[in-house]
Amino acid sequence: MLTARGLHKSFGSNEVLRGIDLTLHRGEVVVLIGPSGSGKTTVLRSLNGLETPDAGVISVEGGPEIDFATRPAQKERFALRDRSAMVFQHHNLFPHFTVLENVIEGPWRVQGRPKDEVVAEALALLDRVGLSDKADARPHQLSGGQQQRVGIVRALALKPDLLLFDEPTSALDPELVGDVLVVIKELADEGWTMAVVTHELSFAREAADHVLFMDGGVVVEQGTPEQVFTAPQHERTQRFLTRIL
Ligand code: ADP
């Protein structure tokens, strides 16, 4: 579904990605874990075309291979953006729009799909995450967990090939985390292809097909959840897991 090879990115003298390779097969859930500042968000943003790596190649099934060393045109990066949808740590909903307006904005105004169709789909998606009665509410009238579920619905409404989650629960009160993780797990079980950055290791253990442990801009270790969590090979992975568990 997606292949990234040799991603490099620096912000000034801070080399944040130092040669990241990542493959996502269709229907697969890849979870990225690692200490804060290790480059996980920058990887997701690169896959989504929000960040431009200095070097490396990204290709999405059916699309062109984008070689960042050749400074690709904006059009190519936007092609990447169209294939995936990102759910952010903070939901980033438009505060002055209703929930429904937030969800339809992308598919209706950006993708130019018929409004009736988009509204019907949006209402069905809201229903599915238990928010059908909130369609006309404004984001501030919802709890953090409800806002984040709207964020997920907004991503789904774009009908992307790939869902990217950037610490989707880390800004939530602990009691609201579960509801959001349940939705993400259901999407994983339904066969969505997704990459998830999270510190929720029990979720990672349950939902991931493949886990990457990043530190200092490199993938230190990767494998099945069983391999990475139960029998980590690298001292850095062991240290991280001991700290976080
Ligand atoms: P993680 O998601 O693992 O916490 P990030 O990818 O967010 O790591 O950040 C990695 C490093 O890159 C951090 O040191 C961060 O400060 C830096 N960084 C990220 N985005 C920017 C930016 N737009 N400008 C400057 N530095 C950035």
TrEMBL record:
| Record localization | Cell membrane
Membrane topology reported for the UniProt record:
Peripheral membrane protein
Q: Which InterPro entries match?
A: AAA+_ATPase (IPR003593), ABC_ATPase_HisP-typ (IPR030679), ABC_transporter-like_ATP-bd (IPR003439), ABC_transporter-like_CS (IPR017871), MetN_ABC_transporter-like (IPR050086), P-loop_NTPase (IPR027417)
Which intervals hold domain ABC transporter? Answer: 2-241
Q: What is its main location?
A: membrane
Give UniProt keywords alphabetically: ATP-binding, Cell membrane, Membrane, Nucleotide-binding, Transport
Gene Ontology MF annotations = ATP binding
Full protein name: Amino acid ABC transporter ATP-binding protein
